[in-house]
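Protocol step 4 of 6: structure prediction from sequence.
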Amino acid sequence: MVFITGHKGSGSKTCIMSKYSKMLIAAAVLIYIGSLLALLKMMRIIDNHEVGDHIMSPEKIKTTINTAKSSPQHLGQPTTTKQYTELATTIAAKWNLTTPTAIDLLVQQFEKANDYDPEKDFFHFHHLYKSGGTSISNFMDKTVGLRKSGKYWEGILPGSYESGNFDHDEALADINKRLEEGTNREDLPYKASYAHTGLRPVYGPHRTKTAKFFQEQMPNKRLRAITMLREPTDFRASNHAMIMCGLNAEIKKFNQQRAKKGLDQVCSPKDGLNVSALVDVKTQTLIDKCQSGAKVNVQQKKQCQDHANGVDIFEHCRSPSHLLAHHQYDKHYRSMFKGLMGRYHRGQEFGGTAYVGMSFGYERAEESKGYSVENVEEYTLQDLGGLDLTISGAGEGGPPEPDFIWFGITERMKESTILFYYYFKAKPLKKIPQH
């Protein structure tokens, strides 16, 4: 249940809790499938899918795209609805999609044009924890950011933080400064923003703080969204190990102690790692901190009080089975993507999404009114594909929610960045930032 995996952006191996069994839920898998389909749609125009260490030059990208357009049969690229249908049928079968509309919706995605307009559009990167988003934030700085002016990148809205929440006050200060210096509101240079903070829903009674801010400060811009997705099991395992339980730090300290004794690092129970013992160490460290009079936050204070009352405060961190049986699983892991999309299907209400970071405690998708696997499949393909302009947080007849113009996949970082260059008409970098 515990494996050694390479830490994203690192050439060395670290001990990370991974591959927790039975932690997938249908909606998470479908969202990941949606991102794969978005990549597939773009890959059909690029003649080198297995990107090596080289970086395609702007001229190379332009040449391959033009070649694909002018020579439709190049490398067997599908060019007719019949060929798209054959490809969509294969994909639907491979991913076991059961909604009757799956093939038709996939074909629509293949045929949908890239309509990004750098002069009219503003896009927000909703950075989900432990998905490679820090690298993408830095990547955006050096592509969409254009050039650095003092502390900030010209095209990135200040208040964006690569591993933090969006700072609305910092953004407003920069906007007001530019307006006072004579810049017209419609000429503000911002192209994009990034943060753990969510954007959707943009309309309706549950509109997010960030959506309201963007609409008020940049009323002439069309809002759009991007994100990075990671294989759902690894995504949950990484969040559990590092964000929820802080086990990575404990394992690192444990192996540093072993190294001083000349011993090799251990990263799994098979190698001799006792995760439960590390949880005991973590618990005792917190109790000692509380008893010493050191400053603790509200959550830590409550944990110490619960421990005094006989509660195993980190019980959910001891093993995958402990997590799955614990109420913390429902709080943190049942609907991790609701803050990204706003909802999973048409019967579910928008709302409860991230005003600051990735909010938690959503209802179980499978317990929401109108839920079915087929409904989630259909809605995901429509929403992530930007195919249905009736999807609105304001309800029927409301303005459409921002579409997801681009997805990246953590496990396919190089291919994802190539597609970013194409989508956003950006000059390729010599080296992709890694963190």
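Step 5 (inspection) to follow. Residues 147 and 154 are 6 Å apart (CA to CA).
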